[in-house]
């Protein structure tokens, strides 16, 4: 339009008229073919390999009543809120060298007095299991095995995403805060000069145990199994935290911050899983 008017070959109204004419022709041709084109688009989308994979292996639905869904939502918000509050309080204490950090030295001294050859061996084993080499391998095996056994990818993907989120958060927060670790002469399993806050070992253990417990137990109806599973997960988190404190690599507030971050991650997992999979059904008999 601009070129024809600029070169003096047409008036501007000539070009506008041509555009309107072409729009009319396009609509006249499209109208009788619109339904056929839409059906073809839908068939193409439905038969696409990725769409087939997604519908078969990623889409997961479960039916719950409105009350159960509400409980899951409240649980998600509670986990995220509690974790955010406790992490903020811990962070402010670390930055201000007061508050909760007053427990760091007493707990460290108590653990130093409790050291023994047998207990040291146990704590080293725990540190290795929840360390940066063994734990990723465990997560990989669990996710792949879970997906193959259940022939479904939704929950393994959630677990892998939660673990990756924890790693990223630990790196960002650690480098931003830059807290020093306890004295090197207290470390029993080699020297570690990286940042202390938060504990990557504890965050990884908490994410893995708590998220796995939720993803497994949320599909079970047994209250006893749910209680036992959560108890075992919490025991594992406590043991992971004790191992890092006992071996002299972290302060107590480092571990508390890690657990707080993990609560936020778990809350996000519960919220996403509930939004994505839960379909509300009315109890039989209600009209």
UniProtKB/TrEMBL annotation:
<dbReference type="InterPro" id="IPR000326">
    <property type="entry name" value="PAP2/HPO"/>
</dbReference>
<protein>
    <submittedName>
        <fullName>Phosphatase PAP2 family protein</fullName>
    </submittedName>
</protein>
<feature type="transmembrane region" description="Helical">
    <location>
        <begin position="197"/>
        <end position="217"/>
    </location>
</feature>
<dbReference type="InterPro" id="IPR036938">
    <property type="entry name" value="PAP2/HPO_sf"/>
</dbReference>
<feature type="transmembrane region" description="Helical">
    <location>
        <begin position="229"/>
        <end position="249"/>
    </location>
</feature>
<feature type="transmembrane region" description="Helical">
    <location>
        <begin position="156"/>
        <end position="177"/>
    </location>
</feature>
<feature type="transmembrane region" description="Helical">
    <location>
        <begin position="16"/>
        <end position="37"/>
    </location>
</feature>
<keyword id="KW-0812">Transmembrane</keyword>
<keyword id="KW-1133">Transmembrane helix</keyword>
<feature type="transmembrane region" description="Helical">
    <location>
        <begin position="71"/>
        <end position="98"/>
    </location>
</feature>
<feature type="domain" description="Phosphatidic acid phosphatase type 2/haloperoxidase">
    <location>
        <begin position="155"/>
        <end position="270"/>
    </location>
</feature>
<keyword id="KW-0472">Membrane</keyword>
<feature type="transmembrane region" description="Helical">
    <location>
        <begin position="255"/>
        <end position="272"/>
    </location>
</feature>
<dbReference type="Pfam" id="PF01569">
    <property type="entry name" value="PAP2"/>
</dbReference>
<feature type="transmembrane region" description="Helical">
    <location>
        <begin position="118"/>
        <end position="149"/>
    </location>
</feature>
């Amino acid at each position: 339009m601009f070129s024809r008017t600029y070169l003096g070959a047409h008036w501007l109204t000539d070009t506008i008229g041509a555009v309107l004419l072409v729009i009319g022709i396009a609509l006249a041709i499209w109208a009788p073919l619109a339904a056929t084109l839409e059906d073809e688009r839908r068939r193409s989308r439905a038969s696409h390999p990725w769409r087939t994979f997604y519908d078969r292996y990623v889409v997961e639905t479960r039916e719950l009543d409105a009350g159960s869904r509400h409980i899951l939502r409240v649980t998600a918000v509670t986990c995220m809120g509690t974790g955010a509050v406790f992490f903020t309080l811990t962070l402010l204490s670390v930055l201000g060298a007061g508050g909760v950090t007053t427990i760091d030295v007493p707990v460290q001294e108590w653990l130093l007095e409790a050291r023994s050859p047998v207990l040291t061996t146990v704590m080293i084993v725990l540190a290795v299991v929840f360390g940066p080499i063994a734990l990723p391998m465990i997560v990989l095996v669990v996710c792949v095995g879970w997906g193959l056994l259940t022939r479904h990818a939704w929950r393994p993907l959630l677990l892998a995403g939660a673990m990756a989120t924890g790693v990223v958060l630990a790196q960002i927060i650690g480098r931003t805060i830059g807290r020093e670790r306890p004295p090197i002469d207290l470390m029993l399993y080699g020297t570690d000069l990286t940042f202390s806050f938060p504990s990557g070992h504890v965050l990884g253990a908490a994410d893995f145990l708590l998220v796995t417990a939720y993803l497994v137990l949320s599909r079970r109806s047994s209250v006893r199994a749910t209680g036992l599973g959560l108890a075992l997960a919490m025991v594992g988190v406590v043991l992971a935290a004790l191992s890092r404190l006992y071996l002299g690599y972290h302060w107590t507030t480092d571990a508390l911050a890690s657990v707080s971050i993990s609560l936020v991650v778990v809350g996000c997992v519960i919220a996403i899983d509930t939004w994505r999979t839960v379909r509300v059904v009315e109890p039989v008999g209600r009209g």
